[in-house]
Design a protein that fits this description.
heterodimer, A: Rossmann fold, Helicase, Ruva Protein, domain 3, 6-stranded mixed sheet, 18 helices, B: mainly alpha, two-stranded antiparallel ribbon, ABC transporter permease (chain B), transmembrane (chain B), cell membrane (chain B), membrane (chain B), ABC_transp_permease (chain B)
Chain lengths: 516, 339
Amino acid sequence: MSTAKEARAIVEMRGITIEFPGVKALDGVDLTLRGGEVHTLMGENGAGKSTLIKALTGVYAIDGGSIIVEGTPREFRGTADAQLAGISTVYQEVNLCTNLSVGENVMLGHEVRGPLGINWAATHREAARHLENLGVRLDTRSMLSAHSIAVQQLVAISRAMVTDSRVLVLDEPTSSLDRGEVDQLFGVIRGLRDRGVAILFVTHFLDQVYEISDRLTVLRNGTLVGEYPVEDLPRGQLISKMIGRELDELDAISQSAARAIDRTSDPVIRATGVGRRGVLHPADVEVYDGEVVGLAGLLGSGRTELVRLLYGADRADAGRVEVRGRTARITNPRHAIDRRIAFSSEDRRAEGLVGDLTVAENIVLGIQAKRGALRKVRKSEQDTIVEEYIQALGVRPANPNALVRNLSGGNQQKVLLARWLATAPQLIILDEPTRGIDVGAKADIQRKVAELSEQGLAVVFISSELEEVIRIAQRIVVMRDRRKIGELTSHDIGVDDLVAFIADEQPQPDSPESAA
Amino acid sequence: MTSVQAPLEKADAFGPLKRFVSRRASWIPVFAALALLILIFIAGQAYFGNFLTPRVISALLLDNAYLFILAVGMTFVILTGGIDLSVGAVMAFTGMFGASLLRDGVPSGIVVPVMLLLGAAFGLAIGVLVQYFDVQPFIASLAAMFAARGLAFMVSLDSIKVETPEILWLQSTRIQGAPGSFYITPTGIIALLVVLVAALVLAYTRFGRTIYAIGGNEQSARLMGLPVVRSKLLAYVVSGVCAGLAGVVFTAYTGASYPLNGMGTELDTIAAVVIGGTLLLGGSGFVVGSMIGVFVYGTIKTAISFMGADQSWTRISVGLLLLLFVVVQRIIVARSDRR
């Protein structure tokens, strides 16, 4: 990776301070972006990354400090100002219009115009040229909605390049891409870097940080920790700098996972041959008291499908389920809730939380739903429960009246977890509870899961991060192609073993030893 | 730069149909409306025998000229994801106000612009409420509807006859080839011009494209640096001006203004726009579609009067059609969401 140490600084942000009512979101932060360099901004959720980006892109006005672009001090009053200064942004949730064509999305606001209005032929030609500059060939007249998120991401980058941007800000562009798509995106990013564009990159994936970055800036709690060339900051140090504490905690979690589980009594849940035609081949799963069972496999391997059947969110058409040794018919979530089974969905925004309600209301919602609408949870009782879980899970801000939609992803996840825990479940199913959240919040959630399982809670834990699954689970159920392909005990395997097992071309359904 | 021609998209694998769908999906509802219109024409002709005559078709345009104009304005607003319930009342009010001015001898060269400006003012007021005070378009335009209706009664409780020749000329002049063949009135020409201009504005100007972008994703449009605030305000102003113009045309059509004119017209307009394939969520639709929607509406009305049945059957059929089209739209949206 080329580190042009003496590369020209295109953007210098000095002593940036931004205050929101009651909070200093950023306190005297510096950031320097140099041409031909990929600069990654690291920090936990709430560290001030998004705030800093929004200051750079003109979404927020700064309360202190200066932004100097190519030697000229600038003051941004809106995104349009920043774009004029050559700073473009591609946001995490692709901010394009899916109802318009690809070409139009690239060119919107910069269409080629003739005397009779927009010249569409020329506009599409221009769009195609910009896309091809990034090595992307698309039918520019097709609707954007016809393309995958990855392609939309590239379209967004092309759009940024239309204005000849010298600075490209990529705010978590990879969070919904698969590996191949990430590679393509990185190819494009490297191409732009080599053309002298300064790139500011934000991600939660540490692997990607080391794959693409030339330089890192670490933030914590709205202050600058430091700026480092990537080769001077190995992974462990980076994490310590981000979370401001050592990694012993993660070791403690692994310790917890190594506990022996008592499998002599009836399991909390035992599913035998549970499946659904076209969705999941019949599979067996058991979870005992105090046990964490990990579900590993690629996206679409049937992990989510399996737990949805267990929870009754989808109806199984084969197999049977026993809860504590007694046959249970779970055909809708109500049945599952009645049997004290909780399910935290992977799509926390759409299926889990109510963004316009407060933290407290979201937490109480679960208990209220369980009790039925007529038996109100007393206010004092609510306050106690809410206070307890905000403390226990470390929800930030620790304000029960904050609206959930204003919380960061990690904190939203904590609220969702709190909501389910407040219903005192005997089994909790967590589908990707740590996706898209930062290292610190991840550690908090893993720690809490370990703690709860030690107290006897049974947990099903789904995660795409195999490291996490191995750390936290006692047993791992491996899925592939909508089929359970085996079970592993986690304490004697590493990520490589698990990967090998998932990728194994010869399915060996009942021989978990093969990978150990 | 390094070429990363990864097989992300198999462009050549697109069949002509798939390619058409990927490019022109938003036109499908418009074609559906057109097919429906043709079907009604054919059915009417088969049933009555004398349905598809130049007289009937010319009358369609004449009788519904005001509705075409309203539908165009409504299309702008609905494309942004909003709604304008005030158009019927604004049409009535501008009509009443204009008629009273004409009665007092104010020349029509002043009265007509005043009517348009009044409409624009109502549109602007709704837009400001929506944009700066974060009032839902439904409520903001409902308030404007009550205000305009009340003002119409303030002008006069009774109908005001209009005798100004220039205004009546708009209606009475028939540009016609041979007797008995197709004809068109100036009001019809105005309606068609409005449709044409609006279609061009939406397709070929940045303002028009911004309207679509706002309807698609307002947040994105803002982050793309598009003039969201200005365009949204302007969309309501366009609808207001159209309501004012409809006031002129409707006054000419009836030869008088009556404060109860246009009761429920806003709903007819919305129905026509939706039947014409414009998504109520915004971001997808065409004025040409709205024009077809008005034709569908007008044709049903004509067919029912041919039958001699009660006009409540128009409402019933339009209601059923609306339901059908909204369901179809839901399916289309649901399908594209699943990607």
